[in-house]
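sanity check both lines:
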Amino acid sequence: MNRLSLAPARRAALLAPALAAALAGPSLAQPRVAVAALPSSAAPAPVDPERLAIAREVVALAYPPEKRQAMMMGVVDSMMAQIRQATFGPSGAPDDPGAQAIFERFVQRVRGQASRSVADASPALFDAFARAYARMFTRDELVQIRAFVATPAGAKYVERSSNLLADPDVARANTAYIAGYLAAVKPIQEELVRELTDYFAKRPPAKKL
């Protein structure tokens, strides 16, 4: 039995935006310091050139350029699989064969675009990582981080952390979290639809000039 009491086609349609967002290529999911989003009007703090140079070395060691695409798409694929299972159950797809075929074509098209977008955005994204690290850490801290990621253990930590969502225990916990969230947000979504429907039903049509 599917986890959400929606018709398969409707569930697939509702899931599409979430999958598209997951497939957009999120920043690498790692248990490290997250960069807080700045208001669009806020100017970034100046970056010390020496700290930036060290931070770029950290990024190059932590995220080798030849591995970046695979690391980021690994996160995307893990998120996609868990969202699908949280929505449809173990099959990860609608029960209806026709709906399943349509849904799979959608997923493959969006994943292909995600892969291209990740490749296009990676240079700017990883340069932004370096700038963020240069702001967040002192020179001495960056030197220590560089030394750690240059070791075999440090390199392994970074590489494995980027694929943390693929670990079976993490995947189970995250899938359960997604399923609980989808179930909890469903009545909120339905209320939004009702409120918007009532609003536009009562709102007189705009007069054309």
